[in-house]
TrEMBL record:
This is Acetate--CoA ligase. It comes from Halorubrum lipolyticum DSM 21995. Residues 38-89 form the Acetyl-coenzyme A synthetase N-terminal domain. The keyword Transferase does not apply. One of its GO terms (molecular function) is ATP binding.
Length: 652
């Protein structure tokens, strides 16, 4: 890649890597990962080093082989081992902490429900028995279409217990998206609910599920329906539809022997966010995935049993799978599960929940942090957040501005932040600092984790010089990696793998730079590079500079047909966007990147189009700037802004 005007400088104009924040001693002293030697140990031992992760689990049949790499890129981790994921997340904690809370759930209407590990064990077993009774057998795929209610993790674990892979579909997706995913997964079973609350209104989820059923080619042989709304919504059930509560009651007290699965057997199917195109159906195997997730939950998120931990991501996305369910439960901690939105009933809802539950580790996304910033620091500042000892972020690049705000107003100025880079496909965190060991650099993700051979390379696969942009690739397999795609082996190979002279390389699709200390900065998608006036800019760099302007909360930059830079910008609630703000934005870009990067157009908009998982969908903004037809927008969370943005673009 050949960029100009970037030169490894950070968007705030300083040279990359200027600011180094050491892990606070109070944190390091009791961190899970506290020995800097860990990097070397992994480097020396190769794949064998991942025994550390696998040995965090209970194996039904111990593995001997760590990695079978006979048939790349179809790698097999711990192939001769057998285990059950649900037994690892529930049963094995019973001796030591049966009465400890596993899940503290907060519903949209102020409801609360708590589950100890023993409670979880009882309900998972009852549902597992019930699903079996309905005909679910080992290897049958069960689709789960539920909002953030405890029945969702319980259903995932019930499936895992009987060796039935789950296929969770984010509850906010449409009937059509559900139908596609049911078909792609060859799924004959569905667990859904009558509906859920959106603000004050009862919303009918079951009718979406019914529509999906009509559209899907597959015939569903049984549907289980959770009663989330009680009398608020009357949902009649057909003959092959069963009330969740009745299924669980009928099998209450039964135990189901956890099915020993090969480590390479499918644990679940999960679709990517669809930020860059059609979502891909990613398949994760049981052993390597769970090992990598458990290891990173402990070593990166530093979660222990006595923590109260909150991963704010929806379980309908990979972050919610890995760090909302499998990670925290496999390490035996207490998690907060929150059904509502962060601004209801008020904009301090998140801080209220953190204070009330004494949350010690909080993991969220830059898009959420940008909303918090937009709403104002007075909301977190009004709460006692002193229980927080570690913060995490995932999903997009976090600007150094947002990083500082997060640390200051949520982390009490002291908590370390782990900026974690990973993908649906990587299964678990792959690049991040180890919070008790590795210094942080705000705005940079950090070095690859021990055991992750991530490299930033040029077109020929050669490592780039520090500061030079290139492609982020991974040169050796890792345990959490996808085992394949629903779309087939050919697509899997084509989408992700390159065979080079020194072996196979995994392509992440992200552009990045690396500095002299090995810290990686994510520049955005390789596809998000824009060509302007013979220069190549990456979106993250430009956007990061724009949000440095006072009052700006979010920005997305695209190129139009004539090679011009178009910047879409949102501002804080109390800011009236005017000419002087346009000036200020132009100045910031000129200062941080160069005069050549001044945008040709700045479009102020109340919001940016975001995927359901909260990422800015640049390709849609590009279509608007170019006056093109829109591509696939089924992944969009706020389609209503599209019209507003279009008219704002045409106005000028
Ligand atoms: P699709 O693959 O369908 O286009 P997606 O890539 O958004 O969707 P996910 O797997 O949810 O689907 O997201 C992974 C991507 O998110 C990464 O490739 C990267 O672009 C971005 N990302 C994740 N974490 C970070 C991070 N800490 N910093 C910068 N970018 C990140
Ligand atoms: Mg992707």
């Amino acid at each position: 890649m050949d960029y100009a005007g970037v030169d490894g400088r950070r968007a705030d104009g300083t040279a990359a890597g200027d600011e180094v924040v050491e892990p606070p001693a109070a944190f390091s002293d009791r961190a899970v990962a506290s020995d800097p030697e860990i990097y070397e140990a992994f480097a020396e031992e190769g794949p064998e080093a991942w025994r550390r992760a696998a040995d965090l689990l209970d194996w039904e049949r111990p593995y001997e082989t760590v990695l079978d790499d006979e048939n790349p890129p179809f790698y097999q981790w711990f192939p001769d081992g057998r285990l059950n994921a649900a037994a690892n997340c529930v049963d094995r904690h019973l001796d030591e902490r049966r009465n400890q809370l596993a899940i503290r759930w907060f519903g949209k209407r102020g409801e609360r429900r708590s589950y100890t590990y023993l409670d979880l064990h009882r309900e998972v077993n009852a549902l597992a028995a019930g699903l079996r009774d309905l005909g679910v057998e080992e290897d049958d795929v069960v689709t789960l279409y539920l909002p953030m209610v405890p029945e969702l993790p319980i259903a995932m674990l019930a499936c895992a217990r009987i060796g039935a892979p789950h296929n969770v579909v984010f509850a906010g997706l449409s009937a059509e998206a559900l139908a596609t995913r049911i078909d792609a997964a060859d799924s004959e079973y569905l667990v859904t609910c009558d509906g859920y609350y959106r603000r004050e209104d009862a919303f009918n989820q079951k009718s979406k599920a019914d529509n999906a059923r009509l559209r899907a080619e597959a015939d569903l042989s049984a549907t289980v329906v959770v009663d989330r709304l009680g009398d608020a919504l009357d949902v009649p059930l057909g003959d092959d539809e069963h009330e969740y509560e009745a299924v669980v009651a009928a099998h209450d007290g039964e135990t189901v022997e956890p099915v020993a699965r090969d480590a390479t057997d499918l644990l679940f199917v999960m679709y990517t966010s669809g930020t860059t195109g059609r979502p891909k159906g990613v398949e994760h195997a049981t052993g390597g995935y769970l090992a990598h997730v458990a290891w990173t939950t402990r070593n990166v998120l530093d979660v222990r049993p006595d923590d109260t931990y909150w991963c704010a991501a929806d379980i309908g996305w990979i972050t919610g799978h890995s760090y909302g369910v499998y990670g925290p439960l496999s390490v035996g901690t207490t998690s907060v599960l929150y059904e509502g939105s962060p601004d209801y009933p008020d904009r301090d809802r998140v801080w209220d929940l953190i204070e009330r539950n004494a949350v010690s580790v909080f993991y969220t996304s830059p898009t959420a942090i940008r909303s918090f910033m937009k709403w104002g620091a007075e909301y977190p500042d009004a709460h006692d957040l002193s229980s927080i000892r570690l913060l995490g972020t995932v999903g997009e690049s976090i600007t150094s501005k947002a990083w500082r705000w997060y640390r200051e107003h949520v982390g009490g100025g002291e908590a370390p932040i782990v900026d974690t880079w990973w993908q649906t496909e990587t299964g678990a965190i792959s690049l991040a600092t180890l919070p008790g060991v590795t210094p942080m650099k705000p705005g940079k993700v950090g070095p690859p984790l021990p055991g992750i051979d991530a490299r930033v390379v040029d077109e020929d696969g050669e490592p780039v010089e520090p500061g030079e942009p290139g492609y982020l690739t991974i040169a050796a397999p890792w345990p959490g990696m996808l085992r394949g795609l629903r779309e087939g082996d050919e697509r899997y190979r084509r989408e992700y793998w390159l065979e080079g002279e020194d072996g196979w390389r995994y392509r992440t699709g992200d552009g990045a730079t690396v500095d002299g200390d090995g810290y990686v900065t994510i520049l955005g998608r390789v596809d998000d590079v824009i060509n302007v006036r013979t220069h190549r800019f990456n979106t993250a760099e430009l956007e990061s500079a724009i949000v440095e302007a006072d009052g700006v909360t979010e920005a997305a930059v695209v190129g139009d047909d004539d090679g011009r830079i178009v910047a879409y910008v949102t501002t804080r609630g109390d800011v009236d966007p005017d000419e002087s703000l346009r000036e200020a934005i132009g100045e910031r870009l000129a200062h941080a990147v160069g005069d050549v990067a001044r945008p040709d157009r700045i479009v102020f908009t109340p919001d940016l189009p975001k995927t359901r998982s909260g990422k800015i969908m640049r390709r849609l903004l590009e279509d608007i700037a170019r006056g093109d037809e829109f591509g696939d927008v089924s992944a969009l969370r706020n389609p209503e802004v599209v019209g507003e943005i279009e008219s704002a673009v045409r106005k000028k």
